[in-house]
Amino acid sequence: MQTKANTLLATKCSWCKKELDKIDLIMIDESNALTHIQCPTKADIPIKDVGYYKDVVEKYS
What we know:
Blueprint: E1 25-29, E2 34-36, E3 47-52, H1 53-60
Antiparallel strand pairs: 1-2, 1-3
C-alpha cells in the first residue's frame, strides 16, 4: 500500500539536483524526469507536463 509520503516522482531536479519544493514550477519529460523551470543546466526538453511540484506529484502519484 502506497502512502502520501511515498511518491513515484523524484524530489530533486534530474539535471542540477536542486531539492524541489511544493511551490517550484517544474517540467516533466517523456521519461518522467523532473526539471525545475529555472534549471541552469538543461534546455530543449521534450515536455510532457508543466506545473507546480505539489500539483504534479498529486497528479502522478
